[in-house]
Design goal:
Layout: H1 11-23, H2 25-38, H3 47-66
Length: 79
């Protein structure tokens, strides 16, 4: 989502950043506007794609179960 300004080096830095943003209404408003502007193009908010990929993964799990395959991690390419 191109939100590099929200990346923190550790949990403490993240907490400090969150507190600072919470206290700065102009900064918070700017972040909300930025998220709203890119939300439609972001895979993070693409519910249809998420569901499609989840269903594909669940079908693969069921197939492995039916065929008595060894359980291994299932990697799903975006479909």
């Amino acid at each position: 989502m191109d939100l590099a300004e929200l990346v923190a080096k550790d949990l403490d830095a993240f907490e400090c950043m969150a507190i600072e943003i919470g206290k700065d209404s102009a900064r918070l408003k700017k972040l909300k506007e930025k998220i709203a502007a890119v939300r439609g193009q972001s895979p993070l908010f693409d519910t249809e794609r998420f569901v499609r990929n989840l269903e594909h993964g669940l079908r693969e799990i069921w197939r492995k179960y039916r065929e008595n395959e060894t359980i291994t991690p299932i990697l799903i390419d975006d479909i």
